[in-house]
Amino acid sequence: MVGLLRRKHFYYLLKTGFASKIHQQTFAVSTVKKSRINLLRLEEELSEIHLRLSRVSIENLPYQKFIEKYDRPHTFFYIDPPYYGCEDYYGKTIFHRDDFMKLRDVLSSIQGKFIMSINNVAEIRRLYSGFTIEDVETAYHVSQKRKVVELLIRNY
Ligand SMILES: C[S@@+](CC[C@H](N)C(=O)[O-])C[C@H]1O[C@@H](n2cnc3c(N)ncnc32)[C@H](O)[C@@H]1O
Fold it and tell me: Which end of the chain has less Cβ packing within 10 Å, N or C?
């Protein structure tokens, strides 16, 4: 029972949460669209998630330790840090503004490849100017008309 409740809670977070944000989590409802949660498909979707993750290892480590542990010439890291300006969205103490500089320094000496997605901010462009920076247009949700520019930063 507890296991099922935990899995249900996890499922709700996956469907309604915003990128693992832990403070002020939002629960999106719409007056014009159907809910993203379909209780009739709950078991089926949990089963799909279960199958998808069955051979995946999940680590809970600070980025420095994680990168050091897995860095090899054949490693590919996808780096998705908090947005510049939203550093404390995932907890008050785990990521600070100066981590953008520390992360850059860690990434500067890895053997593997990385690609990082981040918001388009002058300070990020300045800090990561030693890498390839590509502007990409995106929308945060499908109904968004006005596109925003995000950055893809990579070392290859
Ligand atoms: C923008 S979210 C990434 C969302 C993820 N790509 C997804 O699709 O759910 C930023 C993530 O960085 C994690 N994070 C924050 N500080 C960190 C740190 N010092 N080391 C490792 N991860 C950290 C947060 O917990 C959060 O999951």
Answer: N
